[in-house]
Amino acid sequence: NAGVMQNPRHLVRRRGQEARLRCSPMKGHSHVYWYRQLPEEGLKFMVYLQKENIIDESGMPKERFSAEFPKEGPSILRIQQVVRGDSAAYFCASSTLAGFVHSGNTIYFGEGSWLTVV
Amino acid sequence: GQQLNQSPQSMFIQEGEDVSMNCTSSSIFNTWLWYKQEPGEGPVLLIALYKAGELTSNGRLTAQFGITRKDSFLNISASIPSDVGIYFCAGGSAGGTSYGKLTFGQGTILTVHP
Asked: How high is the pLDDT of residue A21?
């Protein structure tokens, strides 16, 4: 997972502020996924993006959350008007192909961005 | 939605002992993945399974993809202190927009006493 780069690693925001989390996928990967991990829980899928397209956002809250993966630059997960319940670790993952059809393609995670809302 | 039940929730073992943990689901998955997470870090892939019935090893780790595609287990042999961490299973689908949409278990916290 060393190739998936996330920043910032730690972010503190006051309630009502905006949080922006960035993710650069592994070299050669064009599929990006965002997951959220609440304290002492497993990871929960939020959104799946390809370059300039949102493929599946079924796990992302309808309000305040948005994600993009522009043609150039990193993928960004944006949380507006943060609340205490948004405090969590946000993980980005990437893969080469859209599918786990063979051992050459799997999904690798970054080291995460820890958001604390005070 | 799909849910995975991972057990046990935690394990306290002596160095040198073998460890076994498993995941079960009410839904079928096309892929089973096992990850290890250490505090403050992201999940690191340990083993990936792509076919029902597949048994795969990675050093002291062995994992199997259940024949029904609804379960998987992970065994760690001769545990060492650096095995400490949280182990997660994850199930993946292979169709439509489900690529990369992994469903994670709740995790197994492993503590190894020297």
From this structure: 98
Chain B closest CA to A90's CA: distance in Å? 9
Q: Does A107 touch chain B (CB under 8 A)?
A: yes
Do B45 and A48 count as a contact with CB atoms less than 8 A apart? no
Q: Are A49 and A36 in contact (CB under 8 A)?
A: no
The pLDDT of A76-83, averaged and rounded, is: 98
Mean pLDDT of B31-56: 92
Contact A43 B45 (CB under 8 A): no
Taken as a whole, chain A contains a residue count of 118
Average confidence (pLDDT) over A54-64: 93
HEC string for B6-62:
EECCEEEEECCCCEEEEEEECCCCCEEEEEEECCCCCCEEEEEECCCCCEEEECCEE
Binary contact (B99, A48; C-beta < 8 A): yes
Show residues of chain B in contact with A115, CB under 8 Å: none
Residue A117 is which amino acid? V
